[in-house]
Amino acid sequence: MSHAHNHAHLHPHQPHDSWDAVDADAPEAGPPSRRQLLKYGGVGATLTAASAVVPASAFAAGHGRGRTGGRAWRAGDHHIHSEYSGRFDTSKNPPVFAKGADAVYPIVTNAIMAKNFGLSWVMCTDHGGPTHSKVNLELAYPDLLRSRRLVPEVLQFWGMEFDAPQMDHHTLMIPRRDDEAQLLYELESRYAKLDAFPSDPSRDTEAKMIEFLNHTQRMSSRPLVIAHHAARSASGLGVWGQDTPREFRNNQDVAPDVYVGFEGAPGHQAGPLNGDARGGYGNYPTHGGYDQMTAVVGGLWDSLLGEGRKWWITATSDSHVHWTRGGSDFWPGEYSKTYVSARQDYADVMDGLRTGRIFVTTGDLVTSLDVSASHAGRAATVGETVTVKRGRDNDVEVEIRFRPLQGTNGNGDRPQVRRVDVIAGDVTGPVADRDSASNPTTKVVGRYGPSDFRRHGEEWVVRHTLRDVTTRGYVRVRGTSTDEMEPAADGLESPWDDLWFYSNPVFIDVA
């Protein structure tokens, strides 16, 4: 796919609008103060319905042009821990569970804080362990039902942080059904590697993971499985740990409608505020807060996309303990957001995650991001494919629309987008080497700064032309508040000073 482009300023005779103008209609209420965080989020805090009245977010879900059928960009988080990420006394048979060991907040506390920070949907993903399937079914699920009643504005999915056989943790999201608790119980008790007591080594094999995915792909109501902090155990750049490119490919080949991606921006982003690495990536760091599998242009993500795989990225909090209480975490939605184009409906949010109607951001750098590719009157957006017919006019027009934050983010800042990058690569089909982690055709084909942004209402618009497209490919977009040409390896800088957003890809076919 040709990467030639038109990088002309779009409005050379039009004065650049000030960023202040975007804030004209911002609500007065903003993110919670430090006092509110401590009041509502104290260790072991139990919130009543009366205490659930917290300030409305200045960046609530629903901004942006949205989609047909009532869809809009709705922010969420599919990786959140509650007090049910506890401990087990295995000296007794059966093991005895105690709440509040690894994570400390009640399910409803997380839901209230998610609402406060503008989230429309969340998911409780507690750790497993010996006989944890029974804990989920008998103890945690009734609390989830109570939280749904107390915070009805937030869709609250049921699932867990799945102890994936032979791999690191994964989201296991269960469709919203009357029998959702039983569905999770059956999957966890049968397949989670840590659920058996006494422990069973046969549960921790690649064959068991494939068996699990085969089963879920055949289910009438399929769950979703998304890899967590995929390169956290990597010991260097491209030196993989628990999760490998081969495993991702094998897993998706077995369950393409279930196994759909990994966290682009892992949780634990507040680590540097307490002297720890972002994401808990102590061996090899994140880049701009994003896992190396996502952040490296032409790296593993692009290798998967170059096969034509529908492989999506998300951003989560992995919230356990807030950084103001000595943890390494932000509240759900306080720093990282996964936006899904969907109706405020469980099934449609899950469909958006499954089909890639997603963009991600940190620090509320943007509150909407629409990316489209069009040719000869046909257009596609993220997760979709536009077809180019062979002929003399093979140009593809890429349009990027984004909305900056109105008001301030969780740090009291109003971040500014300093650059938008257009990234394109070829789709060449399956790779011979299942451990391949590179796509040499993928490049940054356009870089645009504020003088290139064109104002359209409350949105900014960037347009880019892919010239003479004759082969299959894809285009994706990222943006940043920094002046880094590529996201640098992270140290202990404040995460609020290093913000990025990423779209998922739009595919281009040639017929």
UniProtKB/TrEMBL annotation:
Basic residues biased stretches: 1-13
Location of the region described as Disordered in the Swiss-Prot/TrEMBL record: 1-37, 429-450
InterPro entries in the cross-refs: Pol/histidinol_Pase-like, TAT_signal
Name the UniProt record assigns to this protein: Phosphoesterase
